TrEMBL record:
Annotated Acidic residues bias: 364-380
Name of the protein described by the UniProt record: SYO1-like TPR repeats domain-containing protein
SMART domains: ARM
CDD domains: Syo1_like
Residue ranges of the region described as Disordered: 282-328, 364-385
SUPFAM superfamilies (UniProt xref): ARM repeat
Alphabetized Gene3D superfamilies for the sequence: Leucine-rich Repeat Variant
Organism: Oncorhynchus tshawytscha (Chinook salmon)
Record family assignment: Belongs to the nuclear import and ribosome assembly adapter family.
Origin: domain of life: Eukaryota
InterPro entries: ARM-like, ARM-type_fold, Armadillo, SYO1-like, TPR_SYO1
Domain (SYO1-like TPR repeats): residue spans on this chain: 400-657
Gene this chain is encoded by: HEATR3
GO BP annotation list: protein import into nucleus; ribosomal large subunit biogenesis
Length: 661
């Protein structure tokens, strides 16, 4: 026997003109009744929010959405704790319920005015709203994260209601008026939803921009306000195209000053000071206060565990796309110093991510192989070989205004300082205090973001802006110290991805400018060996590119054949054995660069039997592209792989002519 089909309630449309006469009468009568009663439209609808049926929950939310458009009904809902009862439904399993619940809160915020909005924020509506917006962002990226089978509602529908609710709250709540965490919740949320959201820009207005600019101009020195200003700066950058022309220069300067001041703070000094302040405060606390601290420490264990989940998605187009899992707002009361330290590190990480995006080209990314590479057929020389990838060697251009602002505020210098390993004193403080241990990963993440930021600045700013040849040599020495000073090359994946990206960009510029560099081929080989064992594809690709740049430079020098053989064997090993075609292609591309020209390169190629090795590899590489290509790789990657396949055939032809000499 089949199950009987549940009757579906037709979801009422949001009615800007309000309720029917009958509904209004019922509500007005209800308003005169005892507020605690359940037998009323408001009470009955709120009870239906707990129904196991998604259709009933949706109907209740849609009905509440209509009712609250009549201002006289709002007190009745607020007295029955409507905000807290609707909040969890923002994360309901049903997209339709999510949309209508968010719509109900949106109408409540729009029709209730300033006081209702403040009350909604105080009742913690931001927690489910922020979680919903983050899920919506993930849904837009994956296209199916929230699109459940059989549901007509889309992530876009839900996000539209959520964003409008956020706008209403932002307009009504003064971000600078609270001494609580509410402004930070709002700012985090706003920063998240404004990134790469062209549709959102259409609903932008001067009220939101004015609020953000007032935050940028604030001067409170505590770390919470530093983080608040940084998040506001990120939102302003995301919304830059909506700024009135007359205010752009002034706003950009305020934005850059905010980032500069944040990066100027020394976490290595401040974290030990904050810990000392916590110890001093605890020493004078009452026994009851000490007991509270003990309970708070237990709570922080959960925070520490949650922090382990914090991560970063692969960058798209060179931008830092992050999964925002900062749980600092969950730290218990009484941990003000730890909260300040967390806010400081979060602000610095966010500042660096904003600069990463400022210095990001709109051209396709290296990681996704959507750039023009040395494999591009269109750049072939008469002998069938590419002249080289000049686009990688010529810095991409920032706008003159952004470029000037970065230089005027000494941003490159401050970014470089943040690429250093975290202070040993700060690390020791955190290691020896369980509740502070969560900061260790955050300190490292600031360093990783700084390295990524350095990579983007090297790719987009001209050498003179970065200090010229002497400064670039100093950067090379600094990166060399980071990688080669420890007894073993660090194997942390996020560090390797960031540092190899920065070294790749730096070596490209150094090779182009013919600047002597401090890193020896043997050191670079050891780095590449460590990197090629990494599971992260972008790390392996960077390592191979570094070998290609180094080898092509050495090929123009005397008595380098032995080193070229070592590089050639390493590249052949990867091209033959790596399971990822993108990595194999990068290895082949590097081989083309290293052995394209020069007596030393010809001698080395002969010694490692490069011609016969490539002839054996050619049919295998073609077969892999044909067999695996369409299922595993993007159209852009396949286009580059096809170009490499053509280049491989031509390069083999070139080697054959060399052998016949």
């Amino acid at each position: 026997m089949g199950k009987s089909k549940t009757n579906k309630f037709r979801r009422p449309q949001f009615n800007a003109e309000g309720l029917s006469v009958t509904a209004v009468k019922e509500v007005e009568e209800d308003h005169d009744e005892v507020c605690d009663g359940v037998d009323s439209p408001a009470g009955e609808l709120l009870e239906k929010l707990q129904s196991p049926s998604a259709d009933v929950r949706e109907f209740a939310c849609a009905s509440i959405s209509r009712l609250v458009q009549q201002s006289q009904t709002i007190p009745g809902f607020l007295q029955r704790d409507a905000v807290r009862r609707l909040g969890p439904l923002l994360l309901d399993r049903s997209l339709a319920v999510r949309e209508t619940a968010t719509g109900a809160l949106r109408n409540l915020s729009a029709c209730g005015g300033h006081e209702v909005c403040e009350d909604m924020v105080k009742q913690d509506v931001m927690t489910p709203l922020t979680a919903l917006l983050r899920e919506c962002c993930a849904g837009f990226e994956t296209n199916d994260a929230l699109s459940l089978k059989g549901q007509k509602n889309t992530v876009e529908d839900v996000a539209n209601e959520a964003v409008n609710l956020l706008w209403n709250l932002c307009w009504s709540v003064n971000l600078l008026s609270y001494k609580s965490l509410l402004p930070l919740s709002l700012a985090h949320c706003l920063h998240t939803v404004t990134e790469d959201n062209a549709e959102l820009l259409c609903s932008m207005n001067n009220a939101v921009l004015g609020t953000l600019e007032s935050v940028l101009r604030s001067s409170q020195a505590d770390m919470a306000h530093t983080l608040l200003r940084t998040l506001a700066a990120g939102s302003v950058w995301n919304l830059k195209s909506s700024l009135p022309t007359a205010r752009q220069a002034q706003t950009l300067n305020a934005l850059m000053a905010t980032l500069s001041q944040c990066l100027e703070l020394d976490a290595g000094t401040l974290i030990p000071q904050l810990r000392q302040a916590e110890v001093a405060r605890s020493a004078t606390a009452s026994e009851a206060g000490n007991m509270e601290d003990h309970q708070a420490a237990a709570g922080n264990t959960a925070v520490e565990e949650m922090d382990e989940e914090e991560g970063v998605e692969p960058r798209t187009n060179g931008k830092a796309t992050k999964i925002d899992k900062d749980f600092s707002d969950l730290l218990p009361r009484g941990k003000e110093e730890l909260r300040e330290a967390t806010a400081l590190l979060t602000a610095q990480q966010t500042s660096l991510e904003i600069i990463v995006n400022m210095c990001c080209s709109d051209d396709p990314s290296d990681d996704e192989w959507e750039e023009a590479s040395s494999s591009d057929e269109s750049e072939m020389c008469p002998d069938g070989l590419s002249e080289g990838n000049t686009s990688l060697l010529s810095p991409l251009c920032l706008s003159a205004e952004v470029h000037g602002a970065l230089i005027n505020h000494n941003i490159p210098e401050k970014v470089l300082k943040k690429t250093q390993f975290p202070s040993s004193e700060a690390m020791d403080v955190c290691r020896h205090n369980p509740t502070w241990k969560m900061l260790i990963k955050k300190m490292h993440r600031v360093q990783y973001r700084a390295l990524t930021c350095l990579h983007n600045m090297l790719s987009t700013m001209d050498a003179e802006s970065l200090g010229g040849a002497a400064a670039l040599q100093a950067v090379a020495q600094h990166l060399s110290t980071l990688v080669f000073s420890p007894p073993d090359i660090p194997k942390e994946e996020e560090f390797l991805e960031a540092v190899t990206g920065a070294m790749r960009s730096l070596l490209q510029i150094i090779a182009y400018m013919k600047i002597p560099q401090c890193m020896t081929p043997q050191q670079l080989m050891s780095l590449s060996e460590a990197a090629t064992c990494c599971d992260v594809v972008s790390v392996r690709v960077n390592a191979l590119a570094i070998l290609g740049i180094t080898g092509s430079t050495l090929a123009q020098e005397k008595r380098t054949a032995e080193t070229l053989q070592m590089i050639g064997n390493a590249l052949l090993q990867v091209a033959t054995k790596d399971a990822n075609l993108v990595v194999c292609g990068e290895a082949l591309d590097a081989l083309f660069d290293v052995f394209a020209d020069g007596d030393e390169a010809e001698r080395a190629a002969e010694n490692i039997n490069l011609l016969s090795a490539l002839k054996a590899l050619q049919p295998v590489f073609k077969a892999k592209i044909r067999k695996e290509g369409k299922g595993k790789y993007s159209p852009e990657q396949l286009c580059v792989l096809d170009n490499i396949k053509v280049n491989l055939r031509r390069f083999i032809g070139y080697l054959e002519t060399v052998v016949k000499k």
